[in-house]
Amino acid sequence: MKQKNSKSIHALIACGGTGGHLFPGIAVGEVLASRGHDVTLLISEKKIDTLAASGHPELRFEKMPFLAMPKPWSPKMFGFLKGLWQGTKACRKIIRDHQVDVVLGMGGFTSFAPLYAGRKEGCSTLIHESNAIPGKANRLNARFSDIVLCGLDACKNHFPKHGDVRVVGTPIRSSMRKQNSDDPHAFFKLDKDKRTLLIMGGSQGARGVNRAVGMALEEFEKMGIQVLHIAGPTDYEEVRDVYAKHPLLKQHVAAFCHRMDLAYRVADLAIARSGASSMSELAYFGVPSLLVPYPYAAEDHQTRNAEIFDKAGAAMLMGESDLNADTLADAVRSVFNDTRKAGEMKKAAQKLAVKNSAEKIADLLVKTVQG
Ligand SMILES: CC(=O)N[C@H]1[C@@H](OP(=O)(O)OP(=O)(O)OC[C@H]2O[C@@H](n3ccc(=O)[nH]c3=O)[C@H](O)[C@@H]2O)O[C@H](CO)[C@@H](O)[C@@H]1O
Q1: Is 20 marked as binding a ligand?
Q2: Predicted structure pTM score
Q3: CATH topology of domain 10-170+356-370
Q4: What is the pLDDT of residues 46-90, one digit of tens each?
Q5: Which of 292, 312, 289, 290 is nearest to 300 (CA)?
Q6: Residue range 235-291, pLDDT digits in tens
Q7: Nearest atom within ligand 1 for CA of residue 19
Q8: Which protein residue's CA is at the shortest distance from atom 10 of ligand 1?
Q9: Cα(272)–Cα(347) distance, rounded to whole angstroms?
């Protein structure tokens, strides 16, 4: 590892490809930058990366091509390996040009080249895995990392051969954690005296959840509740048109939300995918939830994530194939008609929150450089 005695460090955070890598990476970047350190965030050319970066003009972003591992023996494998090689070369140049001291990979194969390049250039290297079970990429990335950071306790035993595995929670952007007097009801033009159901499908929306919720709108209307639905950019118009058929249901439908802090503050219950960042935020803001794991997530990691919240009493867990108007309405009623259950779920969620994950990781990055 490089030894540096000056007060500030330069960290390269590889966090491209999906909101679940981007936003925790941004969270660590925000803390380091606020303490006067240099930070470069490596993102991909995907739309979600550009969208996420647009909310943080104070941070420096650089783009790298997104890399997903094809099936072994697929003809795409050659392009993938070429991408890794070119990515490593480009990262070595970034590391030298910016005098990077430490590389943090937030997951995915997009993190591999920066970590490998960091290793070759003598930087400290760390990865963060936010899910209950690590993906293939992070199992490989761990081999090139001095320290493996896990968001959840359940993950730590999945790196049995690594000598330094630490559980630090999954970072939440400090812009979301900042105290503010913004009125969430006014922001979303919702009623203060109605209970609010938040629907969110992770960083890109969830078609299965969007469509199932569409079938339950009549039931929600009968309950007299209001709905804040973050549909994702792809499904936004379809979802908006379904809601338009229910003008008596108080509603706010959005494609993407830059103020998730207000979305969580307005919510009495959330129906959500069980992506790791969404869950760490639900815990932080103490929002009871009905979690619907993405059925095709690698090694079914979203179900493993959700089981932790279900077991702790912070969430209900429902498979996507079980969603229909009745099951959704019953689940929502079971919380909205039982204030004791709602309160217990809220407390259980808050207990699962790790408050200073971004600060802990930032401290560690500085320590690995300055000793
Ligand atoms: C389909 C899939 O494989 N998804 C994975 C992906 O989820 P995904 O990319 O959906 O990420 P998460 O659910 O972990 O987090 C979503 C993030 O997007 C933010 N957000 C979302 C909507 C919006 O309008 N505005 C906004 O800011 C949320 O506040 C949160 O910070 O990465 C996660 C972390 O590895 C994994 O756990 C998920 O399994």
Answers
A1: yes
A2: 0.95
A3: Rossmann fold (3.40.50)
A4: 988 998 899 899 999 999 877 788 888 888 888 888 988 999 999
A5: 292
A6: 999 999 999 999 999 999 999 999 999 999 999 999 999 999 999 999 999 999 999
A7: 9
A8: 202
A9: 18
Predicted ipTM of the assembly = 0.98
Indicate the length of the chain as a whole number: 371
The reply to whether 10-170+356-370 and 177-351 are identical in fold is: yes
CA of 107 to the centre of ligand 1 (A): 13
What residue owns the CA closest to ligand 1's atom 5? 275
Domain assignments of the chain as residue spans, ordered by start: 10-170+356-370, 177-351
Task: Tell me how far the alpha carbon of residue 274 lies from the centroid of ligand 1, in angstroms.
Answer: 8
Domain topology for 177-351: Rossmann fold (3.40.50)
**Cα 25 to ligand 1 centre (Å):** 12
- Residue 63, amino acid: K
